[in-house]
Amino acid sequence: MSILGTTQTLFVNEISNEGAYLDGRDLGEVFLPSKEIEYEIEAGDSVQVFIYLDHAGHPTGTTKKPLAQVGEYALLRVKAINNTGAFMDWGLEKDVLAPYNEQKPKMKEGFSYLVRLYLDNASQRICASSNFNKFLSKDEPNYAPMEEVELIVAGKTDLGYKVLVNEAHIGVVYYNTVFKKLFVGQRLTGYIQKVREDGKIDVLLEKPGMGKVNDLSEKILDKLKAEGGILHLGDKSDPEAIRKTFSTSKANYKKAIGGLFKQGLIDIEATSIRLK
To answer: Is the bond into 105 cis (omega within 30 degrees of 0)?
Structure first.
């Protein structure tokens, strides 16, 4: 089955001067314009294309890769706004529409927003939505403490960053646990701190326990080697300098270099460390 808004491998039925006509199976014939054909093809060949509807509503293929497909999230910029909604740049000639009733918050021209692409059932057109709640799981969150999860940064609140957890639930990463800059649309790994009784989820970005220190230790050793064996960050160094270099707290840094010292790998001074 061919699905609009996704990349598919289709077979060529016919070649013309204008382009190639592909077998779109249940979608019927899919037209691939000649300007989209990057190499010589003939009837019977297979070609990988992204399928969408052109301005006339006909299934069309492109060999270009959009920033997101149907069912995926991406940070897209608004190019224009009219009485229908906001038209967003997703990497193709034809912009994708975010209807007004799918905008939370209301979008402004020139700004970028995290959206999910979906297929509108009525028009069969690919659209964008920043109304994440409609795509979340209806099931209660069932995560174990410190379970590893995939996150997408969705926005900011007064307390911290709002994140999509496994694209199924909403969680919060509190500002006082973040030691690096985050931006909307960023994907990263996180760890469940706890699921509250009201279903709200607290999330951490750093691996807890010795695993976190071990990972940091490896980064410190790599940095030392890259800097010729000396790094001007010791156990008395400024916490902000440590955060900027390793995206971690001074406490975690001191635990890591303490472990490396006990292993006989480094010497520690007030404002620097050295490889032995």
So the answer is: yes
pLDDT of 85-117, one tens digit each?
999 999 998 899 999 999 999 999 999 999 999
* Full DSSP string of 204-227: ESSPPTHHHHHHHHHHHHHHHHHT
> Are the CB atoms for 88 and 80 separated by under 8 Å?
no
Dump pLDDT digits (tens) for 231-265. Answer: 999 888 998 898 889 888 888 888 888 888 888 88
* Fold for the domain defined by 73-133: OB fold (Dihydrolipoamide Acetyltransferase, E2P) (2.40.50)
Sign of CA dihedral 122, 124, 130, 132: positive
Identical fold at 148-204 and 210-275? no
- 29 alpha-carbon distance from chain centroid: 33
